[in-house]
Amino acid sequence: MAAPSVRKFVTIVDEVFHENGPPAATPHRRGAILAVIENPFAGRYVDEIAPFMTDLEPLGLAMAERLIEALGGAPERIEAYGKGAIVGAAGEVEHAALWHAPGGYAMREALGGAKAIVPSAKKVGAPGTRIDIPIAHKDASYVRSHFDAMEVGINDAPRANELVVVLAMTTGARIHNRAGGLAASAVEGKDGLR
């Protein structure tokens, strides 16, 4: 197959100063980058779709690098991540699953070898469909302070023959987190869990 045909990119950055508590000296930043691409399988059933994952790898890495730049340009400041995809109505949810490996490995590589599994969400939808991208700590899935989600969507995507692929990252824990659990400062980073 060929490189994915990109119609557009959308980048979103939130700066959260407080959630009804005292304002933080440094805001919690979370961001997402979305790419609207042509779905090469739209409108028909194709049995062998896995090779498209390889085609998506350069896009994943480019998106991860662009998102790190949007969040300040310092990979070491990124603490959590997530990914997802929305498939247009002429596709199937399995087409979104093709984003799992290229999206996840791209962020791990761009962040210098993050250990934890990258949480993910996928769905089929029409233009304007929104999706909650789950977010978790990049090195230890049990770090409860970093469990979060970021809702994203694009008003004119996905069209029936498109996919919207998404990467999300944050610079830290939820603002005012106080739900306990494994502290980020106690992460061993060996197995992606603790």
From TrEMBL:
This is Amino acid synthesis family protein.
